[in-house]
Amino acid sequence: MPSRLAAIAAIAAVALFAVSPFAGPASAEEHVVKMLNNNGKGKFMLFEPEFIKVNVGDTVKFVPTNKGHNAEMIPGLWPEGAAEFKGDLNEEAVLTIDKPGIYGIKCLPHYPMGMIGMVVAGEPTNKSQLDSYKPVATAEKRYEALKAQAGQ
Ligand SMILES: [Cu+2]
Questions:
Q1: Does the global pTM surpass 0.85?
Q2: Domain containing residue 68: CATH number
Q3: Alpha carbon of 2 to ligand 1 centroid (Å)
Q4: pLDDT tens per residue, range 4-63
Q5: Alpha carbon 60 to chain centroid distance?
């Protein structure tokens, strides 16, 4: 019977190996957010996706798929102690998630057109900022949608 046990053990090892990338503490992941002029569905000047959940240690890469955008922190919506973040116009910018919390992102030129995004990492430690932060009136609608997702 030892050979049969060995076969079972081998199958179990293969199964564990196949599953392991999704189990236990995940290794750092890179998320990609596109900066777009439109999404082809009637929405203009946007981050895609606008809302993402990540793990501390992950990175979020903002890609200038279309020209004329940047990605930068919303100071009133940023975890305490997290590194400051400001990408340049037309440049790729990588945000390293070093603290848990809610990260508010805006495109400076298009913030008045509602170009905002949100990254939530682990425990939303700065949840109170969701209410204290007041976006410009023109960005309110999208902000409310993001806020609803962050509150879940
Ligand atoms: Cu923009």
A1: no
A2: 2.60.40.420
A3: 64
A4: 666 555 555 545 555 544 444 558 999 999 999 999 999 999 999 999 999 999 999 999
A5: 6
